[in-house]
Amino acid sequence: MNESKSPSPQHPKAPRYAILVAGGSGTRMGAGRPKQFLELLGEPVLLHTLRRFAEAALRVQEVIVVLPADQFATWEQLRTDFRVTIPHRIVAGGDSRWASVRNGLAALGTPEGIVAVHDGVRPLASQEIIERAYAAAETYKAVVVAVTPKDSVRNLAQRGSYALNRSRLRLVQTPQCFDLDLLRRAYQLPELPTFTDDASVVEDLCPIHIVEGDYRNLKITTPEDLIVAEALLRSMQ
Ligand SMILES: Nc1ccn([C@@H]2O[C@H](COP(=O)(O)OP(=O)(O)OP(=O)(O)O)[C@@H](O)[C@H]2O)c(=O)n1
Ligand SMILES: C[C@](O)(CO)[C@H](O)COP(=O)(O)O
């Protein structure tokens, strides 16, 4: 299994970029507004996430935030209300996560370096796992953070279901970090329904290297996630 915690970089100090995708509508949350704008401990989810990438030690040169095209004014208002001074560029998303990432990449232009793609609704990504993913991408070009399942896993079959060997399975999180040229080439190919993340877009072009994620790095998807995320955030402050 190609997992590691501390690879030795071949191209240390490559320029770093980040695309925070927050172009979704949050249908599973059912909150009446996109979940990236809901509050955790009194601040929008997306602001928490943005702050994670603003840590100076991470050396991120530019952050692109992808938003639904009809929500620019909402974010503008939140930026004012919460006095957000973290530099970032706003880009309109698309109809799918794939389309939103593609738009973010296009806006980034053609610099060389490493780009992290991160869900705007994963506000609990620690500096350690972000750094681990960026650093590993200097060696492996395509890196995802992931954790081992804690529950037993079954595959549905025509008759009943059967157990999977969970020691061979990983639950994939973001950030996912890529050599920029590689990610650009992958996003020039047509979109497939099997694309659930960026690794699935890239995997035909390059092996995907896995580094240790964090069980706390949850994705805000359904209402109970807000309760857990608030408790975790409090414990991390
Ligand atoms: N067209 C889309 C769809 C999703 N995303 C982003 O991709 C991340 C993961 O997606 P998901 O949790 O599925 O978000 P939503 O699409 O908003 O949720 P749902 O599927 O419940 O509607 C989120 O940060 C979301 O904003 C995006 O940028 N553009
Ligand atoms: C990208 C992702 O967060 C990795 O776990 C996940 O695939 C997004 O899935 P969703 O169905 O768009 O929430």
Task: Give the arrangement of secondary structure elements.
Layout lengths: L2 E2 L11 E6 L17 E2 L2 E2 H9 L6 E8 L4 H10 L7 E4 L4 H12 L5 E6 L7 H14 L1 E6 L6 E3 L4 E3 L7 E9 H7 L11 H5 L6 E4 L10 H14 L1
Parallel strand pairs: 1-12, 2-5, 2-7, 5-6, 8-12
Antiparallel strand pairs: 3-4, 7-11, 8-11, 9-10
Bound molecules: cytidine-5'-triphosphate and the ligand C[C@](O)(CO)[C@H](O)COP(=O)(O)O.
Cytidine-5'-triphosphate (CTP) binds next to helix 3.
Function: Catalyzes the formation of 4-diphosphocytidyl-2-C-methyl-D-erythritol from CTP and 2-C-methyl-D-erythritol 4-phosphate (MEP).
Family: Belongs to the IspD/TarI cytidylyltransferase family. IspD subfamily.
EC number: 2.7.7.60
Q: State the oligomer.
A: single chain
- Given this structure, which CATH class is correct? Alpha Beta
The name CATH uses for the topology is Spore Coat Polysaccharide Biosynthesis Protein SpsA, Chain A
CATH architecture: Alpha-Beta Complex
Q: What coarse outline follows from CA principal-axis ratios?
A: globular
The unique ligands bound to this protein are: cytidine-5'-triphosphate, ligand LQXTBERG
Write down how many β-strands occur, each being a DSSP E stretch of 2 or more residues: 12
- Radius of gyration, in angstroms, nearest whole number: 18 Å
Give the CATH superfamily: Spore Coat Polysaccharide Biosynthesis Protein SpsA, Chain A
Number of domains in the coordinates? 1
Largest sheet: 8 strands, mixed
The H/E string reads EEEEHEHEHEHEEEEHHEH
Structural class: alpha/beta
Distance between the termini: 34 Å
Pfam family, one: IspD
Site (Positions MEP for the nucleophilic attack): 166, 219
EC number: 2.7.7.60
Function: Catalyzes the formation of 4-diphosphocytidyl-2-C-methyl-D-erythritol from CTP and 2-C-methyl-D-erythritol 4-phosphate (MEP).
